[in-house]
């Protein structure tokens, strides 16, 4: 007899989970454990660096090896009596929020591996030595570390497929649909964590370019647009190069610094977005001009 489609997908989930647990074992029990052991001798890198590289991989490994994989295995052995995995995945879903921390830390971890490989030859040698082992299958540490980042999207794809192949009256339908919804929410949570981290990093770079002025640095601000602009001086009919940063709550009117030591711009004026008005001007001598008027003052500007 042909195996039902949904069982094939459930078996694929079990097989990939087994391979995934092996990968986690390699990351946690081999790379992390051995690098940590060396770090404790004080010859390679500080222990803190090793901890920062591997983030919360130990918790992720334990959860999959000691809970999810055994539950899934038990379920597949018992498939003919209880053909369902939806309830097991529902138990798994809330714990996948642990991935937020790992995923958020991933880029930083890769940067640390590169930086310390250059700084500490013994660190680089130890990683190279582990990578030569058969268990690594000729792949780098960074490659193995990418696996947890890709795991949640993989669950989502497999489960979508599983739900699609379930017969309408299947006993697992309700649970599987609910599990899929939960996994989808976790994937969104993980993506939101990455997006938020990127937003803060970009914001910090902008603040550095502005010389880290106290009253401007605020993590809740959102940069909407930035770019060069010409300031029109009506007195002598000339223009001068300026630069604008538009945030959700303020417009920063800046002057590019000639000598860029530290900051790239000097903030000349900060205008509140609240109550600000923008009006286009029909000026034949200066095309693309507009007026920005706020509580603080009015500027006549020309775009490219």
Tally of helical segments = 8
What structural class is derived from the secondary structure elements? alpha+beta
Distance between the termini: 71 Å
Sheet with the most strands: spatial strand order: 4-3-2-1-7-6-5
Which band does the percent of strand residues land in? 15-25%
How much helix is in the residues?
Answer: 40-55%
CATH fold descriptor of the largest domain: Dbl Homology Domain, Chain A
Sheet with the most strands?
A: 7 strands, antiparallel
What's the CATH H-level superfamily name of the largest domain? Dbl homology (DH) domain
Order of helices and strands: HHHHHHHHEEEEEEE
Instruction: Write down how many β-strands occur, each being a DSSP E stretch of 2 or more residues.
Output: 7
- Compute the gyration radius: what is it? 28 Å
What is the CATH level 1 assignment of the largest domain? Answer: Mainly Alpha
Low-confidence stretches: none
Shape: flat
Query: Average pLDDT value?
Result: 89
Total tally of structural domains: 2
CATH architecture of the largest domain: Up-down Bundle
Account of the 3D structure:
Its main location: cytoplasm. It is found in: Cytoplasm, Cytoskeleton. Residues 222-304 form the PH domain. Keywords: Cytoplasm, Cytoskeleton, Metal-binding, Phosphoprotein, Repeat, Zinc, Zinc-finger. This is FGD2 protein. By secondary structure, this protein is α+β, with helices and mostly antiparallel strands. It has two domains: 5-209, Dbl Homology Domain, Chain A (Up-down Bundle); 223-302, PH-domain like (Roll), CATH 2.30.29.30. Helix content is 55%, strand content 17%. The protein has eight helices and seven strands, in the order ααααααααβββββββ. It has helices at residues 5-41, 47-54, 57-77, 86-92, 99-119, 121-131, 141-165, 173-209, and strands spanning 223-233, 238-247, 250-256, 265-272, 277-281, 289-293, 298-302. The protein has a seven-stranded antiparallel beta sheet with strand order 4-3-2-1-7-6-5, with no helix packed on it. A hairpin with a 4-residue loop joins strand 6 and strand 7 (298-302). Helix 1 packs antiparallel against helix 6 and helix 5 crosses helix 8 (173-209). The longest helix has 37 residues, at 5-41. It is flat, with a radius of gyration of 28 Å. It starts with a helix and ends with a strand.
């Amino acid at each position: 007899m042909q195996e039902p489609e949904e069982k094939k997908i459930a078996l694929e989930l079990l097989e990939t989970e087994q391979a995934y647990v092996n990968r986690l074992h390699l990351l946690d029990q081999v790379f992390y454990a051995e690098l940590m052991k060396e770090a404790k001798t004080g010859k390679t890198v500080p222990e803190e660096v090793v901890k920062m590289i591997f983030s919360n991989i130990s918790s992720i490994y334990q959860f999959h090896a000691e809970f999810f994989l055994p539950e899934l295995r038990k379920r597949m052995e018992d498939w003919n009596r209880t053909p369902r995995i939806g309830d097991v995945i529902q138990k798994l879903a809330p714990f996948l929020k642990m991935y937020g921390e790992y995923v958020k830390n991933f880029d930083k971890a890769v940067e640390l591996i590169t930086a310390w490989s250059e700084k500490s030859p013994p660190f680089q040698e130890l990683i190279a030595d582990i990578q030569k082992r058969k268990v690594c299958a000729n792949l780098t540490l960074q490659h193995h570390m990418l696996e947890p980042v890709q795991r949640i999207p993989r669950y989502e794809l497999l489960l979508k497929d599983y739900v699609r192949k379930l017969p309408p009256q299947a006993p697992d339908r309700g649970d599987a649909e609910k599990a899929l919804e939960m996994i989808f929410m976790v994937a969104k949570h993980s993506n939101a964590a990455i997006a938020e981290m990127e937003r803060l990093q970009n914001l910090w770079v902008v603040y550095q370019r502005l010389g880290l002025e106290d009253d401007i640095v605020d993590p809740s601000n959102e940069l909407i647009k930035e770019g060069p602009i010409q300031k029109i001086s009506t007195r002598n009919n000339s223009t001068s190069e300026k630069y604008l940063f538009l945030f959700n709550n303020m417009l920063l009117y800046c002057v590019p610094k000639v000598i860029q030591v530290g900051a790239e711009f000097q903030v000349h004026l900060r205008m509140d977005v609240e109550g600000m008005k923008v009006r286009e001007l029909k000026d034949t001598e200066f095309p693309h001009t507009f007026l920005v008027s706020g509580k603080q003052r009015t500027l006549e500007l020309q775009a490219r």
